[in-house]
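Following up on my earlier message about S-adenosylmethionine. Here are the inputs again, as you asked, copied directly from the submission form:
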Amino acid sequence: MREREAITTADFNYIRDLVRDQSALTLETGKEYLLEARLDPLARLEGFASCGHLVRRLRTGPFTDLHRRVVEAMTNNETTFFRDPRVFGMLANSVLPSLLAARSAERSLTIWCAACSTGQEPYSVAMLLREHQPSLDGWRIRIVASDISRGVLARARAGRYSQVEINRGLPASRLVKYFSQHGSTWELSPEIRQMVEFREINLIQSWQHLPAVHLILMRNVLIYFDMAAKRSILEKAGQLLDPRGYLVLGGAETTTNLDDSFEPVSFGGAVFFRPRASR
Ligand SMILES: C[S@@+](CC[C@H](N)C(=O)[O-])C[C@H]1O[C@@H](n2cnc3c(N)ncnc32)[C@H](O)[C@@H]1O
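Thanks, got it. Here's what our run produced:
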């Protein structure tokens, strides 16, 4: 058996810079334990004796798919169905009805879930919209969901969830309505799955081929970025968003002091961001 090799400061700095350059995620000094916890499983899977050996290989060769997978392994994919019930309550009762009223002449609505992780967020939106049927018959509804991580996108497309994932945020009424059980797994019905199209999009790279969007959910991802990355992503979001549209961020995120082209609007204690009328 080969010896374990600890992560050195140079290894840590290399991964910190790789992850920042490829994804904008920041890895603070002192987070060596996090790096080892996230990279050890990948190192084992790839046949390296330790995380240290894996990093040494990355540092001495050209950029490969292994580098991409290391960046992917450093992402935090925490998510749940209907995460933050106040936000989903206001989406269902105020924001979606007002967007649908504003779009009634065009009869089309496009929603983008940027950083969708394993799919619970876009599928929660799809369930809300499904519950507006039949009044949406004849509408063109697009829900585009994206993430940087191919691993989570594959899981999202499959639409299969464990009991633990189901227990987090999904009301029993919707479990019965939209899921079927296969052993220890719950499978989402094709009618909801086919409402969402998944794509790989890195928020710090080009957002090519995205249509104009009426609602952007970009939740619990900006918190991991530095100021410059947050500003540049919000600026691009402002350009993509319809002037009557809404941006939804995570509970700890805001546009304030980052991008003046948005103004916060409070709906029943949940904050949404809207393009300022003057822009
Ligand atoms: C904490 S999860 C949030 C999931 C969901 N939006 C929610 O609020 O429940 C953050 C997601 O952002 C993704 N992510 C991190 N950096 C990214 C980047 N540069 N571009 C796109 N997605 C990124 C991660 O892969 C992860 O799935």
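One observation from looking it over: The chain has a mean pLDDT of 94. Hope that helps, and feel free to reply on this thread.
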